[in-house]
Amino acid sequence: MNNIVLCGFMGCGKSTVGKNIARKSGRKFLDMDSYIEQKAGMTVSEIFEKYGEEKFRDMEHDACVELAELEGLVIASGGGAFTFKRNVEAFKGKDKIVFLDVPLGIIKNRLKNDTTRPLLQRPDRDRVMKDLYNNRYPIYHAAADIVIKGQNTPLKTAFAIIDAVNGTDVAEKPHKNA
Ligand SMILES: Nc1ncnc2c1ncn2[C@@H]1O[C@H](COP(=O)(O)OP(=O)(O)O)[C@@H](O)[C@H]1O
Ligand SMILES: O=C(O)C1=C[C@@H](OP(=O)(O)O)[C@@H](O)[C@H](O)C1
Ligand SMILES: [Mg+2]
To answer: Could you say which protein family the record assigns here (predicted)?
Structure first.
């Protein structure tokens, strides 16, 4: 059975909604960042600090290749993973890539107290978020087999994704409201 792979910007709910999908679908949940942290024996922030973002992206790509070999999971990707073609290609065609589409305003509110995401720990945080969001949005959209609006509760969003994945062939790209 193929994997359900969630992609989208930091704070769109990949990790939270992913856990809900797993609970309601009986699939096993796997968080890509946690997988990388476990292998590295340190947090994502520590990897960025100690080795830099480029090294993290290589570790992230290795994780994509390894996780794409598995079956039947719900995978929450890291927000940057699907902005790299090589990572999209690892899953595309075999797994169902779901873009959790959430407006930046809602994401900003969700992450207003966040201190764990290295890319956001800087004084020009708002500018960085806006630029990253605008650059990445079309890339997530193009990578996805399914696009789901993620403003609803995590559980409602989870059910919308389960419904879309069960009812949709990979080739279609319905725009469902969660
Ligand atoms: N559908 C949702 N409704 C409200 N808050 C949410 C929702 N999804 C996630 N959150 C909250 O937003 C923050 C980021 O969620 P997370 O799952 O870590 O996002 P991601 O993995 O995409 O970065 C967390 O505080 C989480 O509780
Ligand atoms: O958007 C990004 O480049 C990142 C998103 C993070 O994951 P979440 O999307 O779960 O926050 C994590 O992989 C790292 O901080 C980089
Ligand atoms: Mg996450």
So the answer is: Belongs to the shikimate kinase family.
